[in-house]
Amino acid sequence: MNISFNAGGSGYTGINTNSKQYKAAAKDHLDKLIAEEAMMTPEQKMLYELLGGREAHMRNVMQNYNSDGDFVGPGGVVVPGMYHGEDGTVDRSTWQQLINVSDDARQKMFDNVKREFIQENGISNGDTTKRSQVFREYQLSVKKEDRAKGTWTLQQYEGKYRSAMYAAVKAANPNWQPGQPFDPGILDSVTRESVESQLVKSGNTFVKKPSLGSTLDMKI
């Protein structure tokens, strides 16, 4: 695949257009780039070509992809297999699925939720959370095709752990509100196993098992 980018009609001179890296970059960006080129004035087109034209632009774009064609972002900040499109909505059904996640990864998430719940008095603080490190460590520990689904699953567990801790503190002190201090000892009875033993799958998330005599699943 050679696409000319100047008035003379010459193609790319140093890009392997058969590589997975180029094909992924072209799939995500080339149509938009061609449309932008078509709107350039002659003066803009001249400057554009002096700066390297389409080839230079595609070289820059390709830096956001690895040799397998995975989007990894500037400097490789995105774990391969974790990119879901610019708005995060591409093929949600393919990655918003529950799969098996190791006990070790779930325990690390539980421990992080508990530490932060106590530290922030039940408030989810985006400035101090270490959850991204937990997710990234997990992602790098499993095969690429399981990373997005496993991360989705771990997120579902994370929410249930936090909800169980909130419920435990409220049960001990019905007047407690997030942000107010509480006795951390209240959470001693809340373990990962105790939370998970009350969960069942429902579609692509978890719900609490129905109470005895109830036929309805209640979300925690």
Name some characteristics of this structure.
single chain; 220 residues; mainly alpha; two-stranded antiparallel ribbon; 8 helices; disordered N terminus
Give the SSE map.
Blueprint: H1 20-38, H2 42-50, H3 53-62, H4 92-95, H5 103-119, H6 131-141, H7 144-172, H8 192-196, E1 199-202, E2 205-208
Antiparallel strand pairs: 1-2
Helix pairs in contact: 1-3, 5-6, 5-7, 6-7
Task: Describe the fold and architecture.
This protein has eight helices and two strands; from the N terminus they run ααααααααββ. It has 220 residues and is mainly alpha-helical. A two-stranded antiparallel ribbon has the order 1-2. β1 and β2 form a beta hairpin. The protein is elongated and about 70 Å long. 17% of the residues are buried. The N terminus and C terminus are likely disordered.
Number of helices: 8
Spatial strand sequence of the major β-sheet: 1-2
Work out the strand percent: under 5%
- The first-to-last residue Cα distance is 53 Å
Order of helices and strands: HHHHHHHHEE
Q: Would you report the number of β strands?
A: 2
Q: Determine the mean pLDDT.
A: 89
Backbone CA Rg: 25 Å
The unreliable regions are 1-10, 214-220
Helix proportion of residues, in percent?
40-55%
Structural class: mainly alpha
Main beta sheet, described?
A: 2 strands, antiparallel
In one word, what is the shape? elongated
Short description:
With 220 residues, this protein is mainly alpha-helical. It has helices spanning 20-38, 42-50, 53-62, 92-95, 103-119, 131-141, 144-172, 192-196, and strands at residues 199-202, 205-208. Helix 5 packs antiparallel against helix 6.
